[in-house]
Design brief:
Elements (H helix, E strand, L loop, with lengths): L1 E5 L6 H13 L4 E4 L17 E4 L9 H7 L3 E2 L3 E6 L2 E6 L4 H9 L5 E3 L7 E5 L2 E5 L14 E7 L9 E6 L2
Parallel strand pairs: 1-2, 2-3, 3-4, 6-7, 7-9
Antiparallel strand pairs: 1-10, 5-6, 8-9, 10-11
Length: about 170
């Protein structure tokens, strides 16, 4: 099972469509959005040929984001847990680094997905892998200079090697 991971798309419809196109080409089974769509119009392209899950980001100011996600996918609120076969994933936007660290350090999950920082990364700690797919480039120290998403091979052994980051041209 292949999982697409995306975050911080901030109403950039070209970026959203490019991510959906990549996920289609990679034949993902599900996509997890780690928050910061901003408005409902940038949610609807994810109504595609895969299961869809999303959490609320700190910039998701329109509450209609929730009902738009729920019209074709699963809205997890501020945070949630998804099981992909034997792989358990916690998802949060990542606004609080303390919460992200607690989810990683508790040892209950194979993976913790989050965004918010606009900086892609993968880190394994005591059997749990923290995955940030990245996001749109923003003028903040440490943020990526290119839009990135990630994929997880949920059939591979749990670890950094199961995660691949993809740079998106938009």
């Amino acid at each position: 099972m292949r999982i697409g991971i995306v975050s911080d798309t901030h109403d950039d419809l070209a970026a959203v469509e490019a991510a959906v196109s990549l996920f289609d080409r990679l034949d993902v089974d599900a996509v997890v959005h780690c928050g910061d769509f901003v408005a409902p119009f940038s949610v609807t392209p994810f109504d595609a040929g895969f299961d869809f899950y999303a959490v609320r980001g700190n910039n998701d100011g329109e509450w209609a984001v929730q009902s738009t996600v729920e019209s074709f996918g699963t809205y997890l609120g501020e945070a949630g847990v998804i099981s992909f076969g034997t792989v358990d994933v916690a998802v949060t936007h990542g606004t609080s680094g303390v919460v992200v660290d607690a989810l990683v350090d508790c040892g209950d999950y194979d993976y913790v997905f989050h965004g918010h920082t606009h900086a892609h990364g993968v880190e394994e700690r005591d059997g749990t892998v923290r995955v940030n797919p990245g996001g749109l480039p923003i003028p903040v120290d440490g943020a990526d200079d290119r839009f990135r998403v990630a994929t997880l091979d949920a059939g591979a052994p749990v670890g950094n090697d199961a995660v691949t980051h993809h740079e998106i041209e938009r």
